[in-house]
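Intended use. Records like the one below are meant for learning the mapping from a protein sequence to its folded structure. Do not use them to infer anything beyond what is encoded.
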Amino acid sequence: MDQAFTQSSLFIWVVLPLLIFLARIVDVSLQTIRIVSIARGVRWLAPLVGFFEVLIWIMAISQIMKRVSHPMSYVAYAAGFAAGTAIGQRIERRLSLGMVLVRIITRSSSMELRRRLRQQEFGFTHVPAQGAEGPVELVFTVIRRQHLQQVQQLVRSTLPDAFYSVEEVAGAGEKVYPAPLSSRRDPVFPFRLFSKRK
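Structure written out for the chain above:
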């Protein structure tokens, strides 16, 4: 790069801060995805993202930061970090990484919900229980995050008064549905609670 240009006001006030800003967006977005993939048990993705994250840092950010000599660059660095975090979260939501446990609690009959879950090839566990105000039914299902909205819609349409919660799942013992009906050993339990029988 021409030395005269790197010393110009255009480079110091516009070009260098913009490069720092863009580099930090990419770097921090990848960092966010890597951390989330580790937390959600997507083991294959974390090393892959980490490779590109470090590569960008070495090839771009470290070279740019050698020339930081103006307050605008620090502002761009911080703004890129903030923007990268926000963009990384949006990318993560689009990717729908990992699995979740959906727990539904209802005082009404969950028969229709269970029928529709089975119809759409979602495994579940159904447990009768006792709540503070009387008997309730619990329905548990472990699903891929990409299917969460589909299951939430099923709950809202069949049990509009039901309470449900969603929790992160780092891993499951065996299968996570949907899976072909013919390949299921048990259409009720989405994962094994105990070790395999010998």
